[in-house]
Hints:
Elements: H1 17-76, H2 85-115, E1 124-127, H3 128-146, E2 150-154, E3 161-164, H4 166-182, E4 189-196, E5 200-208, H5 241-251, E6 255-261, E7 265-273
Parallel strand pairs: 2-4
Antiparallel strand pairs: 1-3, 4-5, 5-7, 6-7
Amino acid sequence: TIALLACSSRSPAAYTERHAVFLREVGKALRYPVEREWHAVQLERSYGEYMEMLGFVSHEMKSPVSSIITLVRTLADGYYGKLEEKQREILERVVNKAEYLYAMSNQYLNLSRIESDMMELKPRLVDFVDDVIQPVIELLAPQIETRGMRLEREYDDTVFPVRCDPDLLRIVMINLLGNGIKYGNRGGVVRIVMEKGFKKFSVSVWNEGPGFDEREKMMLFKKFTRLKDPNLAERRGSGIGLYVSWKVAQLHNGTIFAESEKGSWARFTLELPQYMDLCIVK
């Protein structure tokens, strides 16, 4: 980037050395904002390229990893012959690692779409329980069983019509319930509560567990951020899920927040308008 500062006069010897010094100092003062703007443009371009690459890699990873999970599960179930217990345990560990990679690729793909403004909202009228909550429960049921947890539900079985993008809100519920399972106590309780208000509603996921300190609450929804709690060190996470959930809630003109009692429990609550077609942020 080249910036040029020029002065002219019709009169001979119009400028003295003092004028030259002054202009030089003005040029120095103007150089820094120009350089900052140039660096900002370069940084934005690099970030865009990074997100494009991240989305491409994540998308390309999903199919082969999914195939690995299916094939190894088929093998572990004895479809190709009887296995010993030790062999089955090893295959289960392979499946767990592959599922972690699959979840990570999904998270990064969602992040790249949001950061690149490619996350398209497709609102339609759905039953929030049957179309959003229940599919997520069925998807995560094996994780609940593996950790020996008990799922409690506090909401009516009656139809609750909501105009929203169910695909995006399933991503949010997967993150919230998945975190409740992952960071909850083994053998403990995880609870889903839905409360209905006037033209709005909330869904919260509560779990018994180590929780978090009030001072750490603001860090939860930041990108690539994880709490530095030694009790949670072994529970892997990407630091992306809650950030993506927060962005999806914003797109629906809603909000998401966290509460906790350190050492006892944690709760994450999603608040949304019931009919979002009139208030979706473009």
